[in-house]
Design brief:
Layout: H1 3-22, H2 25-30, H3 34-52, E1 68-74, E2 81-88, E3 104-109, H4 113-124, E4 133-138, H5 143-150, E5 156-161, H6 187-193, H7 210-229, E6 240-244, E7 247-249, H8 253-263, E8 274-276, E9 294-299, H9 302-305, E10 309-311, H10 313-320, H11 323-328, H12 334-344, E11 351-355, E12 360-362, H13 378-389, E13 401-403, H14 422-430
Parallel strand pairs: 3-4, 3-6, 4-5, 8-11, 9-13
Antiparallel strand pairs: 1-2, 6-10, 7-12, 8-10, 9-11
């Protein structure tokens, strides 16, 4: 880390600790005792010393946040360091210390700042949001998005950046290498041209497209980071809730999640290993026809329950045992891939406890799979806000009504392909390694 960055973070640490000291200084000075004044001077020296060494005085039994978490990555251009980013937990001195089982919310962010702004506004209105850690995982580094995220003051915030994005590797793997085979190139033609991945089309005979493979890579990378690699969460024992930039949450979504988590202790729901707060309605008007306090127990279906879903470390550890299948299954969708390992690899298939009336909504009209002429989020957000405002009297139900045994398992899903390149397989598998330095030359 450069001297400027060191100076910045040391200054931040000094400011934080002196602020704590000053909060108690008045009473000490009033004593007008030379002994106490000398103690103040000594304490200031100690604070400066330890801040310079980047120590953070947080009790070990508390949620293990640190002011600075350093993660470095190396690319294949002269093994130069391309990302050496100090990850700072914002607002960590503004709230009570979090516990190991406090909720962690992870948001996958691309480039759609208008959607993200609406999501953040909805999170700000949520009761008990200050008790959470909010992690934004980016695959695009944008000043305006960073400014928006760093303006948050209602809870702790951490930003992490996917280091193998197309933005950072525009003309090389895992971006689009000029010598990569074009998507629809015939395999015989590809072999004749000797393009990079000629031997590895997908099951439909198509070659990889970076804009599609990136989403699955990013999801898998961030999940590995949160559960196993980041110092701030690697010992976390509670739920991790997954959101995306084009989601919108109801005011009581955390309250409902807490009630649902308590229901998982019920023997009837012991097999549930996923909680789902998002339900895809045929139209927003269907919201009125769903019971506000009802939850359903059913097999997890990726295309229905992939929005606002949460699981804990025990479920993650089972997923991680299936890493080889996750990283080689020929589907560029992370959720369809999870569905496959649930059916084919896990000892206990994903079983979900689902909120019948959704607390998480999808507001994205445009994105990876959908493009319309009007990509502004305002219209659908206005609809969601309206329907929520009409039903505020049903927020925060005292208890949940349990609907048992509803829903059937998923029909067989044909894989979508797009994930036949062995370079994608190997990069994906490398994210599970504890080694924080990954040389992309090995995937050439």
């Amino acid at each position: 880390m450069g001297s400027t960055a060191k100076l910045y973070f040391c200054s931040k640490s000094i400011y934080r600790h002196i602020k704590i000291l000053l909060s108690n200084l008045g009473a000490i000075v009033q004593k007008r005792n030379p002994f106490y004044l000398k103690m103040v001077f000594v304490m200031c020296l100690i604070i400066v010393l330890f801040a310079g060494l980047q120590f953070d005085f947080i009790k070990a039994e508390k949620f293990p946040f640190r002011l600075n978490v350093i993660t470095s990555y190396v690319d294949n251009k002269n093994s130069e360091q391309i990302l050496f980013k100090a990850q700072q937990v914002q607002n960590d001195n503004l709230f009570e210390p979090l516990r190991n089982d406090s909720l962690v919310i992870v948001i996958q962010v691309h480039t759609r700042i208008e959607y993200l702004r609406h999501l953040i506004e909805s999170l700000a209105k949520t009761r008990n949001i200050s008790d959470t850690l909010l992690i934004f995982s980016h695959d695009y580094n944008d000043d305006k998005i960073n400014e928006l995220v760093r303006s948050i003051e209602f809870c702790r915030v951490l930003q992490i950046f996917y280091p193998y994005s197309i933005q950072k590797h525009k003309h090389e793997f895992p971006g689009e290498d000029p010598n990569d085979c074009q998507r629809n190139l015939n395999r015989n033609q590809a072999l004749a041209r000797n393009c990079n991945n000629a031997n590895h089309p997908d099951m439909y005979g198509h070659y990889r497209e970076a804009k599609f493979t990136q989403t699955k890579h990013h999801w898998w990378w961030k999940a590995n980071q949160v559960f196993d690699h980041l110092d701030v969460t690697r010992h976390h024992t509670g739920l991790v809730l997954f959101l995306e930039e084009d989601h919108y949450v109801a005011e009581d979504f955390l309250y409902i999640l807490t009630l649902m988590q308590k229901q998982m202790k019920n023997k009837v729901f012991a097999k549930c290993n996923i909680l789902s707060l998002g339900t895809y309605l045929d139209s927003i008007d269907m919201y009125h026809h769903q019971r506000a306090n009802e939850v359903k127990s059913m097999p997890w279906i990726s295309v229905k329950h992939n929005m606002g879903f949460a699981f804990n470390r025990s479920t993650w550890n089972e997923i991680l045992k299936c890493k080889n299948l996750f990283c080689t299954y020929d589907d560029y969708n992370w959720d369809w891939t999870l569905q496959h390992i649930s059916e084919e690899c896990l000892p206990q298939k994903f079983y979900a406890l689902v909120a019948t009336r959704p607390r998480v909504f999808h507001i994205g009209e445009c994105g990876l799979h959908h493009e319309t002429q009007n990509c502004k989020a305002d219209h659908i957000v206005a609809q969601v806000r309206s329907v929520l405002a009409e039903n505020t009297y049903e927020f925060y139900p005292k208890k949940l009504r349990l609907a048992v045994g509803v829903g059937t398992g998923p029909n067989y899903f044909e894989p979508n392909g797009g994930w036949g390149d062995v370079r994608d397989h190997n990069l994906c598998l490398s994210f599970t390694s504890q080694n924080k330095t990954i040389d992309l030359k090995q995937f050439s």
